[in-house]
Design brief:
The complex is a heterodimer. Chain A is of the alpha/beta class. Chain A has 6 helices and 5 strands; from the N terminus they run H-H-E-E-H-E-H-E-H-E-H. Helices cover 53% and strands 16% of the residues of chain A. In chain A, helix 3 runs parallel beside helix 4. The N and C termini of chain A lie far apart (87 Å). Chain B is of the alpha/beta class. Chain B is built from 5 helices and 5 strands, in the order E-E-H-E-H-E-H-E-H-H. Chain B has a 5-stranded mixed sheet with strand order 1-2-3-4-5. In chain B, helix 1 links the parallel strand 2 and strand 3 (45-49). In chain B, helix 1 (24-41) packs parallel to helix 2 (58-73). Chain B is globular, with a radius of gyration of 16 Å. Classes of the chains: A alpha/beta, B alpha/beta.
Chain lengths: 164, 143
């Protein structure tokens, strides 16, 4: 007796006979675009002064977002000839070892390109967490607020003699 | 002098702008020729420009790092300029922080970091009342 194989696909095809593949594809594309827009919005990189960039980080900083932030910040640095990058973490809810590692990586890459990083927005709670975890952030310049970070950035520009 | 990589002068500051892909052999040859040139000329400054390099492997990165450090030991202010974002990301991931050397985003900023500034020549009317600026540096050299 011959056995007929029924593929699962056949059943699906007949069930979705009213839903062409192109519509599914279009929905997938819209979803992908929405994800990309979300990523772009969540990592705004602003030129706050001549040669000074600021990135307010909002939301959890996982490996993927950290990588994305680093790449986009460095590209912007290259485009704007920026010499200082201010990273504001006021909007980052949980500060842990991974977040610290990502921030240090960004700072290292910025320094390789001849710039300096300033970390702002460390709340008292975050400071206690950092000390509690025994993290060494000595390599990073820090300031409590974005405004004070900008002050430091302008001073850095002066001492390095940046004149356009 | 390495055939493919010219070592130019801006005043007495050496400028090496690398436009060819560096393999191990060329990198070492470049380092040797730069250090020999410094020894010959006692150049007060060295700028190594890697703006054109899209790829820098760990060996080449170490050679460039050494070149800059050795130049400093020979009393030549040295700076590595123009590292591309992709290269910076790769070196960071490899753990090559190159923290002992000066870096800058481009040649102009690099010159400032080693104590020089490009100035436009003042107009004739201003020349009588204005001195050219000298950036405070260990040596008061002018380009």
């Amino acid at each position: 007796m011959a056995r007929t194989r029924v593929n699962a696909g056949d059943a699906n095809e007949s069930a979705n006979i009213n839903k062409p593949d192109t519509e599914l594809q279009r929905t997938k594309n819209r979803l992908a675009q929405a994800n990309k827009d979300f990523d772009d919005l969540s990592v705004p990189i602003m030129t706050v002064w001549d040669g000074v960039l600021a990135v307010p980080l909002i939301g959890t900083l996982d490996s993927r977002r950290a990588q994305e932030t680093m790449e986009r910040a460095l590209l912007e640095m290259s485009k704007e000839r920026a010499r200082v990058l201010i990273l504001d973490i006021t909007g980052v809810p949980a500060f842990d070892t991974m977040v610290a590692k990502h921030l240090l990586q960004i700072a290292t890459a910025v320094r390789l390109m001849g710039g300096e990083c300033i970390l702002t927005g460390i709340t008292p709670a975050t400071a206690i967490t950092i000390v509690g975890l025994g993290l060494d952030l000595a390599k990073l310049n820090t300031r409590p607020t974005l405004a004070q970070g900008l002050q430091l950035a302008l001073k850095m520009r002066e001492t390095q003699g940046l004149v356009r | 002098m390495t055939p493919q990589i010219p070592v130019l002068n801006i005043g007495s500051v050496l400028l090496v702008s690398i436009h060819v892909e560096l393999n191990d052999r060329v990198a070492i040859a470049l380092k040797t020729s730069i250090l020999e040139r410094i020894e010959e000329t006692w150049a007060p400054g060295l700028i190594i420009d890697i703006t054109a390099l899209g790829v820098v492997d760990s060996f080449v990165a170490r050679v460039l790092n050494e070149t800059v450090q050795l130049a400093e030991i020979m009393d030549t202010r040295a700076v590595l300029v123009g590292m591309q974002p992709e290269v910076a990301v790769t070196l960071t991931e490899m753990g090559l922080e190159l923290e002992k050397i000066n870096t800058a985003i481009d040649v102009e900023v690099g010159l400032e970091k080693i104590g020089y500034r490009l100035m436009p020549i003042a107009s004739h009317a201003e020349q009588n009342t204005q001195q050219a600026e000298e950036v405070h540096a260990n040596r008061s050299h002018r380009i």
